[in-house]
Amino acid sequence: MNINDVKKIAILGAGMMGHQVGQLAAMNGYEVSMTDVDSGVVQKGLDTIKKNLQKFYVDKEKMSQADADAVIGRISAAKDLKTALNGAQMMIENVPEILDLKQQLFKEMDEICSPDVVLATNTSGMMITAIATLTKNPERVVGMHFFNPVTVMKLVEIIRGVKTSDEAYQVIIDISKKWGKETITVNDSPGFAVSRLFVVLINEAAKLVSEGICSVEDADKGCQLGLGHAMGPLRTCDLTNGMGVSVHALEYMREILGDEYNPAPMMKKKLLAGELGDWAGKGFYDHTQK
C-alpha cells in the first residue's frame, strides 16, 4: 500500500474533529465515507461542512460554488462501520478518548478489512500500541493526530506504535504532506509530544487560578505576552471544547507516568458540570454573556 493506492477514506466518528478530517480529505480529492454510532452526528457534520465551505471558502472567493459542491459530493454518510469501510484503503478514527472503545473498534475493523488497509487513529494521547493490542495486524495501526481547527492548523503529529510498519507510517506521512500539513514523528508514549506539553500547561494554569494566584484572563495574558503564544492555554482549551479531552488525557498519563499529571480539581469540577468550552457556553470563560 502506498499513497497512490488510496482513493477512498473511511471516517469513524463524525463529531467535532471527525467531520473536519472528512472535509479536509474531500477537499483534496478523496472519496470519503463518514459513520458514527449516532446518525444525527453524521448529518450535523455534513451540515457543518456545507456551512464552513460556504463561509470560509466560497464567500471569500477561495473556492467556486461548483468546487464546493464537488467537495460535498465526495462525502457520503454510511449507516455502519462495515459500510463505511467497504472499498476504503484507509480509515481515520475520531471517537472519544476511551481506550476500551478504541480497542474494540480497531479489533472489529481489523476483522472487516483486508490486511493492507491502513488504520489511523486521531487520538490526542493514547498509546498506539495499546489501541492496536486486540488486532491481528497491529503493523497497519498508526497515530495521525490532527489539531483543531483541522483545515487551519498546519501540524499533524504522527505516532508509530511498537509494531507499526514502515509502509503504514509512510502512507500517513505522504497523505499529510499532500494535504498541505507539516509533520512531526514521535515514538509511542502517553500524550505523545504536543499533548503532553500542552495539557500540562492548561493544568498548571488551572491550578494557578484555583490557588488564587492569578485570574483566568491573566494566566492567558501571561502566556501570550510573556511567552509569545498566539492564544493563552485556557482560552485555547475553551475554543476547542477541550475540557473533557484535557482531563481524560491527564488521567491517562497519570496512570502510566505518575501523580504529577493529576488534573486540577477545577478542571474535574467543570467537566462534571458540563462546562466544556465554547460549544457548551461555559468553560474557563463564560461565553453566555457574549
Mind sketching the topology for me?
Elements (H helix, E strand, L loop, with lengths): L7 E5 L5 H10 L3 E5 L3 H20 L6 H9 L1 E3 L3 H5 L4 E4 L5 H14 L5 E4 L6 H4 L9 E5 L9 E6 L5 H13 L3 E6 L6 H17 L5 H12 L5 H7 L3 H15 L7 H8 L18
Parallel strand pairs: 1-2, 1-4, 2-3, 4-5, 5-6, 7-8
Antiparallel strand pairs: 6-7
Major β-sheet strand ordering: 3-2-1-4-5-6-7-8
| CATH hierarchy, class of the largest domain | Alpha Beta
Shape: globular
Task: Compute the number of helices.
Answer: 12
Helix content: 40-55%
Q: What would you call the structural class?
A: alpha/beta
Label the CATH architecture of the largest domain: 3-Layer(aba) Sandwich
Query: What is the arithmetic mean of pLDDT?
Result: 96
**Weakly predicted, low-confidence segments:** none
Quaternary state of the chains: single chain
Q: How would a textbook summarize the main sheet?
A: 8 strands, mixed
Description:
- With 290 residues, the protein is of the alpha/beta class.
- The protein has 12 helices and 8 strands.
- 46% of the residues lie in helices and 13% in strands.
- Helix 5 links the parallel strand 4 and strand 5 (118-121).
- Helix 1 crosses helix 2 (39-58).
- The longest helix is centred in the N-terminal third of the chain and has 20 residues, at 39-58.
Descriptive labels:
single chain; 290 residues; alpha/beta; Rossmann fold; N-(1-d-carboxylethyl)-l-norvaline Dehydrogenase, domain 2; 2 domains; 8-stranded mixed beta sheet; 12 helices; globular
The gist of it:
The protein is of the alpha/beta class and 290 residues long. It has twelve helices and eight strands.
